[in-house]
Amino acid sequence: MSIDPLPAALRVDSLCGGYGPLTVLRDISLTVAPGEVVGVLGANSAGKTTLLRTIAGAIAPTSGRVELNGRDVTKDRDYARTRAGIGHVPSGRELFGDLSVKDNIDLGGYGVARQRATELKERVLELFPKLGTMLDRRSAALSGGEQQMLAFARALMTDPSVLLLDEPSTGLAPAIVESLFEALRRLIAEADMSVLLVEQNAELALSVVQRAYVIRHGEVVLSGQAADLHQDKLAQAYLGA
Fold it and tell me: Torsion angle of alpha carbons 189, 130, 142, 170, nearest 10°?
């Protein structure tokens, strides 16, 4: 499936890939416009995390194309895509556990100009003020919610034009989830940034995204405006009913 050549901050065209001989993504195409928030929904093992890891450059696709702000980054390594403007909050958080909160945040801004990194750090500590009270703590000693905040902050320190968020609500208490999504809503309202949000909780995702794609077995089976994706349509797309 190919897509129309509309202006896009992120364009994924006919992407296939997976892990060695195991094919997970099958001809996936999607777009995220500048400043747009788009969701990727689906059941467990649908291929959502593999899709984000492939876009971020952690997994090389077997075919297809990834474009960032009109530039083909398909063959770029993950660090090059980060420098080009892709920020990634992985599902496993992947923090440096033995390093402090401050060090994890500072490492996120390593490739950013000093003045800009200072501005970004002020911004992330405003979004997540709790992190400012524990800058000297080892990240491994944080709670799950605190670690998710730190992973979010570290990704924002790369100064991304496109932010990839992978299952930010997984395993967290409802109050923590609401706090994280309130920070996301503030970020969306105030920042010039596009967001691709992977989330198994469809209701939660549809409360913040403008459009969404539903994938099943590595294929896009439904897409549309968030307001048009009713529960019956989602159930059919998730289950293949």
Answer: -30
